């Protein structure tokens, strides 16, 4: 049964060192699974990877895939031939392999000289030409592929790149549902010139992701287990940097990066590539992360800028609850982008970041969107700052975050002007209005003055009610003002005042209680009165049932206007109970009475 999955040279059973890989394949089900099947990524394998920024992603990903086991290139025990004949097995025929460039199915021959050989997709002449016990990239099977011998020779060490019509064609066979045909550029063929090699479209993504793996896996330094020095392999578009090295080097380059990014996008990961990743992992102990997470390619190798928030401002002429957020696009949000931005998500921070609005991306240079916010300035919270950010979302789900900004909204709309009426058909008089139909109405405040056009000062009443009861039935003037919860005030209403008859001649003074204010009151009120002529004046206080409570004034005064203060106590200094009381003024045979209300 093993022999159907593992083609071994010179033996009828697996060589020493292969049992671990075979056990893995059995346990994962790959040994007996249909061609093209693959196992799930081992649980927890990428748990330590941090994707917050491109640098964090690269650094933490390198730490996961670093320090793999070195497979001997050629050996009497397990070597790269064994690994590759499993990894590149023909999905349609387990006795054959399917080569990377010609897409031809060859009978496995176990290594040595034959119609296919081992292709260093990152040419070993770029950084690691000398094989040995400490040369890890030379035998790293994530970038080694079985290839038709002639096609491998045609490719040589040419960097991967985009050729043009007129280049030399190397056709492919039709196998595994792909390849075949010739004569039309690019078709399903490989193409090359004296400088570049263009892999056929069915395997462009495979070799591209192998290159991305090599760039992240080999970043210089040493193997943490064996201490072997490792090169820093770097993908680039600068052809002048891509040069052969006569010996193993500390830094080497390969390309072309921009083309490889296009190939990665054009040829997505398939099950055959996932199965290959599983096989190599079973031998080397590390995976190609760009097969498991192809979205990480662009996060690392396609740097972008933005989005950048340029303004956060209150939306004018509303009752608050909206901010206008303006930002510049992410650089990937452009026509022809390899990795388009699909949308922008605006987030607000509470105890965590929550989505508050979404804007589809359309390659605009900038965007502006009104977003909802609960942060509305008010007297209680004059500056209710909250934090906001914009998230650019790629097609594959990868995100790019803007810097964080703060803002809050303002209620710009004052309540409408009250319309007030005065009903003086009985006592108390009723001053009334209709509450405004606004969601943030807070209070109606009533003001009283003794002359028309008075300047409002301390209100008689401020609450959410729709009326005020006036027990002081002397001639006064009234206005009402609305307030909302955010501190906005309406204009004052038009003045209302009682209808007045039998008005004395101009200049004549009245003997009367002219004003009690405030009324109702607590704890004290002022009693204003006038005398038309000099004489003894007495002001007494009575309970509602007629009981005498206290004399507030008993003395001679000249003609004119006066004012006294009552502190709500009786003639013994004790606090009186809340309720209605009456004042009676007597002077020169004239009497005036006024009702007042003590509140507690």
What's this, in brief?
With 600 residues, the protein is of the alpha+beta class. The protein has ten helices and 31 strands. It is rod-shaped.
How is this structure best described in words?
The protein has 10 helices and 31 strands. It has 4 domains: 2-301, no CATH class; 308-407, Immunoglobulin-like (Sandwich), CATH 2.60.40; 420-484; 512-598, Immunoglobulin-like (Sandwich), CATH 2.60.40.4070. The model is unreliable at 1-35 and 500-508 (pLDDT under 50). The chain is of the alpha+beta class and 600 residues long. The chain is rod-shaped, with a radius of gyration of 45 Å. A hairpin with a 2-residue loop joins strand 1 and strand 2.
Layout of strands and helices, then pairs:
Elements: H1 2-5, H2 19-28, H3 54-65, H4 80-87, E1 89-90, E2 93-98, E3 105-107, E4 116-120, E5 144-148, H5 149-155, E6 168-170, E7 190-192, E8 197-198, H6 204-217, E9 232-235, E10 251-254, H7 257-266, H8 271-284, H9 289-292, H10 295-301, E11 308-314, E12 322-328, E13 341-349, E14 353-360, E15 366-372, E16 386-394, E17 399-401, E18 405-407, E19 420-423, E20 429-433, E21 441-449, E22 461-463, E23 467-470, E24 477-484, E25 512-517, E26 525-531, E27 535-543, E28 548-557, E29 560-566, E30 579-587, E31 590-598
Helix pairs in contact: 3-10, 4-8, 6-7
Which structural category fits the helices and strands? alpha+beta
Instruction: Say how many strands there are.
Output: 31
Give me the oligomer status: single chain
Percent of residues in helical segments? 10-25%
| Low-pLDDT sequence parts | 1-35, 500-508
């Amino acid at each position: 049964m093993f022999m159907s999955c593992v083609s071994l040279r010179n033996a009828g059973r697996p060589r020493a060192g292969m049992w671990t890989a075979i056990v893995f394949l059995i346990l994962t089900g790959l040994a007996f699974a249909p061609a093209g099947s693959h196992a799930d990524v081992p649980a927890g394998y990428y748990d330590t990877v941090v994707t917050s920024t491109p640098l964090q992603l690269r650094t933490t990903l390198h730490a996961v895939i670093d320090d793999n086991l070195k497979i001997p290139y050629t050996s009497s025990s397990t070597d790269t031939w064994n690994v590759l004949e499993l990894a590149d097995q023909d999905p349609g025929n387990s006795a054959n392999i399917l080569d990377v460039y010609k897409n031809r199915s060859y009978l496995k021959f176990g290594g040595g000289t034959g119609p296919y050989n081992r292709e260093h997709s990152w040419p070993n002449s770029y950084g690691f030409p000398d094989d040995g016990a400490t040369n890890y990239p030379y035998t790293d099977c994530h970038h080694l592929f079985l290839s038709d011998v002639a096609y491998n020779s045609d490719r040589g060490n040419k960097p991967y790149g985009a050729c043009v019509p007129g280049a030399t064609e190397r056709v492919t066979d039709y196998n595994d549902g792909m390849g075949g045909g010739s004569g039309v550029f690019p078709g399903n063929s490989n193409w090359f010139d004296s400088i570049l090699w263009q892999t056929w479209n069915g395997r462009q993504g495979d070799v591209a992701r192998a290159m991305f793996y090599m760039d992240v896996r080999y970043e210089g330094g040493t193997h943490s287990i064996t201490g072997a020095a490792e090169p820093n392999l770097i993908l680039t578009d600068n052809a002048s940097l891509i040069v052969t090295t006569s010996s193993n080097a500390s830094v080497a380059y390969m390309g072309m990066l921009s083309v490889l990014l296009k190939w990665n996008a054009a040829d997505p990961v398939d099950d055959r590539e996932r199965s290959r990743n599983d096989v190599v992992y079973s031998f080397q102990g590390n995976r190609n992360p760009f097969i498991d997470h192809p979205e990480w390619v662009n996060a690392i190798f396609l740097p972008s800028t933005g989005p950048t928030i340029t303004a956060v401002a209150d939306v004018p002429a509303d009752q608050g609850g909206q901010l206008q957020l303006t930002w510049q696009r992410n650089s990937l949000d452009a026509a022809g982008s390899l990795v388009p931005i699909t949308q922008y998500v605006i987030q607000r921070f509470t105890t965590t970041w929550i989505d508050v609005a979404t804007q589809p991306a359309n390659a605009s240079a900038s965007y502006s969107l009104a977003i909802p916010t609960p942060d509305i300035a008010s007297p209680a919270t004059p500056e209710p700052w909250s934090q906001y950010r914009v998230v650019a979302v790629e097609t594959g789900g990868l995100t790019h975050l803007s810097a964080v900004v703060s803002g809050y909204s303002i209620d710009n709309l004052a309540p409408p002007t009250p319309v007030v009426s005065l009903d003086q058909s009985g006592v108390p008089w009723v001053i009334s209005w209709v509450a405004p139909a606004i969601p943030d109405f807070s209070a109606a405040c009533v003001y009283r003055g003794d002359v028309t056009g008075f300047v409002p000062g301390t209100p008689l009443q401020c609450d959410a009610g729709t009326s005020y009861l006036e027990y002081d039935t002397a001639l006064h003037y009234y206005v009402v003002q609305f307030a909302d919860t955010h501190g906005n005030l309406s204009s004052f209403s038009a003045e209302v005042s009682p209808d007045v008859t039998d008005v004395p001649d101009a200049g004549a003074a009245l003997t009367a209680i002219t004003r009690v204010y405030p009324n109702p009151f607590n704890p004290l009120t002022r009693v204003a009165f006038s005398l038309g002529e000099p004489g003894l004046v007495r002001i007494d206080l009575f309970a509602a049932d007629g009981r005498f409570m206290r004399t507030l004034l008993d003395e001679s005064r000249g003609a004119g206007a006066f004012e006294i203060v009552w502190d709500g106590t009786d003639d013994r200094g004790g606090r009186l109970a809340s309720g209605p009381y009456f004042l009676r003024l007597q002077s020169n045979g004239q009497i005036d009475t006024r009702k007042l209300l003590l509140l507690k």
